[in-house]
Amino acid sequence: MFNKKTKCQKLLIFLSIFYFAQAASSTGATSNVVVEEPEFTDTIENITVAAGRNVKFACSVKNLGTYKVAWMHFEQSAILTVHNHVITRNPRISVTHDKHRTWFLHISNVQEEDKGRYMCQINTVTAKTQFGYLHVVVPPNIDDSLSSSDVIVREGANETLTCKATGSPQPSVKWKRDDNSKIAINKTLTVSEWEGETLELTRISRLDMGAYLCIASNGVPPTVSKRIKVSVDFPPMLWIPHQLVGAPLAYSVTLECFTEAHPSSLNYWTREDGQMIHESKKYHAENTVGTPSYKTHMKLTINNIQQTDYGTYKCVAKNPRGETDGTIRLYSSKYQSNLNEIDKSEQKSSSDPEGKSISYGHHVPSGVASSPGNLNCKLSLWILPIILFNALR
To answer: CA nearest 65: which of 26, 95, 94?
Structure first.
């Protein structure tokens, strides 16, 4: 008992034989001369081609006489051509021959559905057939409708990225980060690359923020990729390197805060009464975006300090996920005590957790050069009479 496909194929062969029957019977009836039957002189070569190209199959015969050659697509059970005539309605199919010796089946703009066995048949009483196989390879393509697009995730949540690719052969998919940093799959596993159509990120953090590339390849150029941006939202956080800052009257001083927030926060300074500080000759505020871009360095410079400038200052950061602030107290320090520190350093500095230098301004008395050597020399001359006076008392 034949299955349905086998029956269809046998019917195809039967119909083709029937189609040629008149030519075959007339050939045998009109002459008693023994005519050598046609036969194939070469095999049909298998062809591998990329989709969109043109191909042709060659079927070589001898002693064709009044017999006819037909081309068929075996899997589709479709008669394509009979001798010089195109039977199929497919406009991409055509047939030519080389003085009836070689019959060429032409397929233009090959599509993936064209793959399969192609049969060349001679309509002898017992039909003679041979086959050639068409392999159609298709470069990879990423299906945007079935793949992830840019996403925004709350910090601490899980996220799964998906990348669906088609092609022939079936493409393989791998993931990389756009900046070549490692991918954190979970707390214990980090990798440079991840293979598979899905990438699962567990308890995502701000360190996972950035662009991810899904790359599809199957050996047929070109390799294709899709860039997926992952944004991680979290409320603002503050780091204050110095919460207590001393400076004498008439000096300038710089207060500093470091913030992290996504989306980017609104950053500003206030006094202890909540009044916002605005740009003026007295105050200069500066926000510098760091790396990664969710980091910001806030600086507030207070010029020509007066008694009313002492007190509490707040750096404030707000975004849609929350709000936070930090407090810095500015107090009065005596100029005489600062002179004792000049030999140690012209500027005071410390480091934040990331090793950044935090500098504070200093005041240079009128008539004293600002270079460190001149500063120490002239200050020494300035205080020498005081030292001698105290020694002679």
So the answer is: 26
Higher pLDDT, 382 or 292: 292
Residue 92 has pLDDT above 60, yes or no: yes
Q: How many Cα neighbours within 13 Å face the side chain of 146?
A: 9
Give the number of other CB atoms < 10 A from CB of residue 7. Answer: 12
Q: How far is CA 76 from CA 7, 12, 85, 92, 364, in A?
A: 13, 10, 19, 16, 93
CA-CA-CA-CA torsion for 174, 180, 183, 184, nearest 10 degrees? 180
What are 360-379's pLDDT values in tens digits? Answer: 333 333 333 333 334 343 43
Read off the amino acid at residue 291.
T
pLDDT digit string, tens, across residues 26-76: 444 444 556 789 999 999 999 999 999 999 999 999 999 999 999 999 999
* pLDDT the model gives residue 40: 97
Q: Could you report the per-residue pLDDT of 234-286, keeping only the tens digit for each?
A: 999 999 999 999 999 999 999 999 999 999 999 999 999 899 999 999 999 99
C-alpha span between 285 and 277 (Å, rounded): 9
Report the C-alpha gap between 290 and 119 in whole angstroms. Answer: 68
Give the number of other Cβ atoms within 10 Å of residue 195's Cβ: 10
Residue range 97-114, pLDDT digits in tens: 999 999 999 999 999 999
Question: Torsion angle of alpha carbons 278, 284, 288, 294, nearest 10°?
Answer: -30
Nearest to 123 by CA among 38, 28, 17: 17
| Residue from 299, 305, 302, 301 nearest 286 by CA | 299
Residue 298 · residue 342 · CB < 8 Å: no
**Closest Cα to residue 256, out of 349, 373, 332, 165?**
349
